[in-house]
Design goal:
Shape: rod-shaped
Distance between the termini: 119 Å
Helix content: under 10%
CATH architecture of one domain: Beta Barrel
Structural class: mainly beta
Largest sheet: 8 strands, antiparallel, barrel
CATH class of one domain: Mainly Beta
Number of strands: 11
């Protein structure tokens, strides 16, 4: 006889649900009555497990730290000092009742002392000038040869120097008062009266430490000096200078 499919496919018995807490059975017959609370389900708590830890970092008390400070950029600030010396060409021309000129290769330069007043801007007092040994004399267009004397021109003024950073190229200008002196090695006498003097420089510097720099500059200066009566002695000079600057 065929067995119905519904009876043949018997479902496996479902296991009883697991108690989430420990169940305590009642005492056997004839035993004393248990104290209150006996037979009441109680939840058993277990402490959280602990695991050994592994040190992954060095204790702050024994750690070694190296602090790397960024290198600050070079700046122009504080006290300013520049000395520049070199060689060039100088000519002085007298215009008026008497016309002549003295010219030749020259040595000269400038010394400036001051301070920074704004970013990359220095204000300073400057001495500048040049000297020609045995200058060539020309009168009324005629070359009369060299003169056994020295032509010295110098000036004192107030100027400014501005740096274009970070390329460290500068422009400098000074306005002051100057004069010319003839020195024959025995006696030095004022050749002119005091007049107006203008000095201009353009240069490039390279830092050698945090405050000192060396460089090269082109110098150009003019002077217009009274020379008695209506005469004026004009000075024009060009030079290539090498400099050392503290700033």
């Amino acid at each position: 006889m065929a067995v119905p499919i519904a009876r043949a496919q018997e479902t496996a018995p479902t296991p009883p649900a697991r108690a989430t807490s420990e169940e305590i059975p009642p005492p056997p017959p004839g035993e004393p009555t248990p104290p209150p609370g006996y037979g009441v389900s109680a939840t058993v708590s277990y402490p959280a497990p602990t695991y050994p830890t592994t040190a992954t970092s060095t204790s702050p008390s024994t750690a070694q730290y190296v602090v790397v400070q960024p290198v600050p950029p070079h700046t122009h600030d504080g006290f300013f000092f520049r000395i520049a010396l070199g060689l060039g060409y100088l000519t002085g021309t007298n215009d008026g009742l008497e016309s002549f000129s003295l010219s030749g290769g020259s040595g000269g330069g400038s010394i400036a002392v001051g301070a920074t007043v704004a970013d990359d801007l220095n204000v300073h007092v400057e001495i500048f000038g040049g000297s020609v040994v045995d200058p060539a004399l020309s009168r009324d267009g005629m070359d009369l040869g060299d003169v056994s004397t020295n032509l010295n021109v110098s000036a004192l003024g107030v100027g400014v120097t501005y740096y274009f950073m970070p390329i460290n190229i500068y422009l400098a200008g000074t306005l002051g008062a100057g004069r010319a002196v003839l020195d024959d090695g025995v006696d030095a006498s004022a050749f002119t009266d005091t007049g107006i003097a203008l000095n201009a420089m353009v240069g490039k510097e390279w830092w050698v430490d945090s405050d000192w720099a060396i460089g090269a500059a082109a110098q150009f200066f003019l002077m217009s000096l009274p020379n008695g009566g209506e005469d004026t002695f004009g000075v024009l000079a060009l030079a290539l200078l090498f400099s050392a600057t503290y700033n």
